[in-house]
């Protein structure tokens, strides 16, 4: 018994997140050499993998869709803290950081995570089958929130440029919170069955469906270690950002592309968790993760930035540019056509991945 407990404490899923956070304390705010940069990259990758493991333990304990919600909210809360920290220390140059980060998160989740999940599931099981009611409700909320928070600022006239007036920003923040709260209530209480995995004829049930849920103590430890891992992911991504910025500048890419790279790193735990669920023919969980993350990113970030704008220096740019609006509109149209039938082929997955590729390409070549 003692040997088993010792082995559990020495497991890589326990050691790596703790080690990554310890390293983060020593690396934060320092100029890193090549060895330290390589160490930070390795620990970052390990924290991502450990975070996925602990998220799945928690998800198995509480069941769907609560498990997906836990991971989405945990990642977004830390993402919001990172955005506010960077905006406070970045000065006027970081005025568009919230917009760029949120939009990158929306495109990565709705096209990247959705696309790779649909493609993987369709390749392995011919069709990716999911609940159209749940996916459609989530997508409708994402599109509404993105339009209210990121598109309208480019068209309002109270202030010049893509800015909200204080009253408009307050309205957008309250609307985001209300819509997000309504969605969470729908997902977890009123219509929880809309967000549960759908069985298909050729599906091989996953082992986790028959395994007993982990005990409460193990679940609590995993949730604590999930937060530890997520702090390490976001913190080490920030530590590695000077290296990323130098690489972006050396490659001749625009500075805004750094936000895309960091968003990819921050969303890595959810991406891996979604891919693993799709590989077990549980693509509804993948969609819950993807669309839930997009919702949390907008629904929690905009209110937090609205409150932080009271003491943040400089203006707050939220309005998207014309190219970004076109990509968002195309994503919304394709997303509707994908979720309405309740099943998708590898073609739909490929289309979403192509949209993500277009977003990354145009971010690098605006």
Q: Sheet bearing the most strands, described?
A: 2 strands, antiparallel
| Number of H/I helices | 13
Structural class: mainly alpha
CATH architecture: Up-down Bundle
CATH fold node name: A middle domain of Talin 1
Cα-atom radius of gyration: 20 Å
H/E element sequence? HHHHHEHHHHHHHEH
Mean pLDDT: 81
Total number of β-strand segments? 2
At the fourth CATH level, what is the homologous superfamily? NCX, central ion-binding region
Q: Looking at the structure, what is the overall shape?
A: globular
User: What is the percentage of strand-forming residues?
Assistant: under 5%
The CATH top-level class label: Mainly Alpha
Q: Number of folding domains? A: 1
Alpha-carbon distance between the termini?
Answer: 59 Å
Proportion of helical residues: over 70%
Low-confidence regions: 1-8, 201-210
Strand order of the largest sheet: 1-2
Could you characterize what this model shows?
With 366 residues, the chain is mainly α. It has one domain (72-203, 233-364): NCX, central ion-binding region (A middle domain of Talin 1, Up-down Bundle). It contains 13 helices and two strands, in the order αααααβαααααααβα. A two-stranded antiparallel sheet has the order 1-2. Helix 2 packs across helix 3 (34-62), helix 4 (66-90) crosses helix 8 (216-250) and helix 5 (97-125) runs antiparallel to helix 13 (346-364). It is globular and about 50 Å long. The N and C termini lie far apart (59 Å). Pfam families: Na_Ca_ex.
């Amino acid at each position: 018994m003692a040997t088993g407990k010792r082995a559990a404490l020495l497991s890589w899923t326990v050691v790596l997140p703790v080690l990554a956070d310890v390293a983060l304390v020593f690396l934060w705010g320092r100029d890193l050499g090549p060895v330290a940069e390589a160490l930070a990259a390795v620990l970052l990758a390990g924290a991502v993998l450990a975070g996925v493991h602990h998220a799945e333990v928690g998800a198995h304990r509480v069941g769907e869709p609560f498990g997906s919600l836990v991971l989405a909210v945990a990642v977004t809360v830390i993402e919001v803290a990172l955005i506010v920290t960077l905006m406070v220390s970045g000065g006027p140059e970081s005025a568009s950081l919230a917009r760029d980060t949120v939009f990158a998160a929306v495109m990565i989740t709705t096209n990247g995570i959705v696309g790779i999940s649909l493609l993987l599931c369709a390749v392995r099981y011919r069709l990716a089958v999911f609940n159209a009611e749940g996916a459609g409700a989530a997508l409708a909320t994402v599109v509404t929130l993105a339009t209210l928070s990121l598109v309208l600022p480019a068209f309002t006239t109270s202030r010049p440029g893509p800015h909200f007036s204080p009253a408009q920003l307050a309205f957008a923040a309250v609307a985001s919170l209300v819509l997000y709260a309504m969605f969470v209530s729908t997902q977890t209480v009123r219509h929880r069955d809309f967000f549960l995995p759908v069985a298909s004829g050729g599906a091989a049930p996953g082992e986790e469906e028959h395994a007993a849920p982990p005990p409460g103590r193990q679940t609590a430890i995993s949730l604590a270690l999930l937060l530890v891992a997520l702090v390490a992911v976001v913190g080490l991504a920030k530590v590695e950002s000077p290296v990323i910025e130098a690489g972006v500048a050396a490659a001749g890419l625009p500075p805004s592309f750094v936000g895309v790279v960091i968003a990819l790193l921050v969303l890595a735990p959810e991406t891996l968790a979604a891919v693993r669920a799709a590989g077990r023919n549980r693509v509804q969980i993948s969609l819950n993760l993807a669309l839930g993350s997009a919702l949390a990113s907008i629904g929690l970030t905009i209110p937090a930035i609205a409150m932080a704008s009271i003491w943040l220096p400089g203006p707050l740019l939220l309005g998207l540019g014309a190219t970004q609006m076109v990509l968002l509109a195309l994503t919304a149209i394709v997303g509707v056509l994908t979720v309405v039938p309740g099943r998708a082929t590898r073609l739909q997955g490929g289309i979403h991945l192509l949209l993500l590729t277009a977003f990354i390409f145009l971010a690098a070549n605006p």
